[in-house]
Amino acid sequence: MAKDLTVLEEIIGEVAEDVYNKWALALPEDQKTEEALSALSKNAYEVTVLIIQNFMKRFNDAAEELKDK
pLDDT in tens for each of the 69 residues of the chain? Predict the structure, then answer.
């Protein structure tokens, strides 16, 4: 049975896929091995999570700052 994803998980998955596709297209054909593409996929997901977490923290910090005014 498929696991229900949260909206955030869906966004992360979609953005990570976009990042992966961009990186994979930029990779020279002779370097597109199963191992290299697997590493790109893992890295795309990790980078996406890092960026979204950073964005959310900054967004929440800014919202708190505005709320305090």
Answer: 457 889 999 999 999 999 999 999 999 999 999 999 999 999 999 999 999 999 999 999 999 999 877
Q: Residue 5: which residues within 8 A CB-CB, separation 6 or more?
A: 13
Closest C-alpha among 2, 9, 7 to residue 48:
9
DSSP 12-68: HHHHHHHHHHHHHHHS-GGG--HHHHHHHHHHHHHHHHHHHHHHHHHHHHHHHHHHT
